[in-house]
Amino acid sequence: MAKSPETEHPNKVFGWAARDKSGVLSPFNFSRRDNGENDVTVKILFCGVCHTDLHTIKNDWGYSYYPVVPGHEIVGIATKVGKNVTKFKEGDRVGVGVITGSCQSCESCDQDLENYCPQMSFTYNAIGADGTKNYGGYSDNIVVDQRFVLRFPEGLPSDSGAPLLCAGITVYSPMKYYGMTEEAGKHLGVAGLGGLGHVAVKIAKAFGLKVTVISSSPKKEEEAITQLGADSFLVTTDPQKMQAAIGTMDYIIDTVSAVHALYPLLGLLKVSGKLIALGLPEKPLELPMFPLVLGRKMVGGSDIGGMKETQEMLDFCAKHNITADIELIKMDEINSAMERLAKSDVKYRFVIDVANSLSPP
Ligand code: NAP
Ligand code: ZN
């Protein structure tokens, strides 16, 4: 008989899990492997709440494997390190992001692109290298191979820095890969001003881009300009402004989490412009061919980033004082936070104060 999540490993852990597609989270006792020779055990301090957590607990993508303990924006303290661990010592402040495993020998891994390794394993809702299930950061500790642990730079706050581990790298990587940072002053549209979108504005400004937020929420305009530093704001429901902005952008980063029309976004691009899709709506989007073909435009995608680039992004954010704007919540406030996230009602990332609010019953 298969062992229960609580008894299959020696290391007892407490967290919160969703049990079915209602997505309701509740206390959950489980276990993790003992710290191995290459592992770091992390006492979790803070964990960000990504929209991917919400998609997963609701089974939006059809492959949720319950119980699911979400959470992949983890900041904590290393409490144990294996004998082969050279990068970290006990007491170090560390981060864990979206992936915790890969084959470490394929072409992608050799190029520091573990995120595209065919055997990459996610921090939660996935099976780890030992064949047992991975559980995420809505819990008191996690055991991770050192390759997938990040040094958390001095000066970067643990709470508002946590969302960089997913939201930060997810927007940073395509800016570099698609050439947005090569020439200062290029015009970037950021579609969707949520967790990813608001960090995209800050990182893009630090790279010297001109940034326009493309949003469905008129009420976000003032803050986008005055607090986040966007150069302008476009409401998708204002046909006149959308019309006036046609053909003005070199790039668009699309972070919208729900099904939406690409046609108006593609129209905003200049000839040869690129739209980079980051959002993962539950159903496929329609891809209109005319604006692509007639304007030599391109649609691409991007999935988080490799470990080396994630470290580079954290160091970049520390240097430029970039953090997320967060609403700090207690663990038992997670269900109402998820309801608000579903309505895009968060400024702009919930972060769980795990160490101060997660207490076993
Ligand atoms: P989020 O905080 O909920 O932000 C998403 C934004 O999309 C909302 O704030 C809203 O912005 C807009 N939006 C939501 N519903 C909409 C609708 N029905 N129509 C138009 N706009 C809508 O989510 P997030 O954490 O930033 O994640 C965004 C998406 O990226 C999710 O699908 C997530 O799974 C995915 N993701 C991908 C990666 C990757 O590696 N590619 C990594 C992390 C997350 P406005 O109010 O401004 O319109
Ligand atoms: Zn995420």
Automatic annotation (TrEMBL):
Domain Enoyl reductase (ER): residue ranges: 23-352
Domain of life, source organism: Eukaryota
SUPFAM superfamilies associated with the record: GroES-like, NAD(P)-binding Rossmann-fold domains
Short name of any one Pfam family annotated for the protein: ADH_zinc_N
Record has Electron transport as a keyword: no
Record's keyword terms, sorted: Metal-binding, Oxidoreductase, Zinc
Obligatory cofactor(s): Zn(2+)
Oligomeric and partner information: Homodimer.
Family affiliation: Belongs to the zinc-containing alcohol dehydrogenase family.
Protein known as: Probable cinnamyl alcohol dehydrogenase 9
Organism of origin: Camelina sativa (False flax)
Gene from which this protein is expressed: LOC104729246
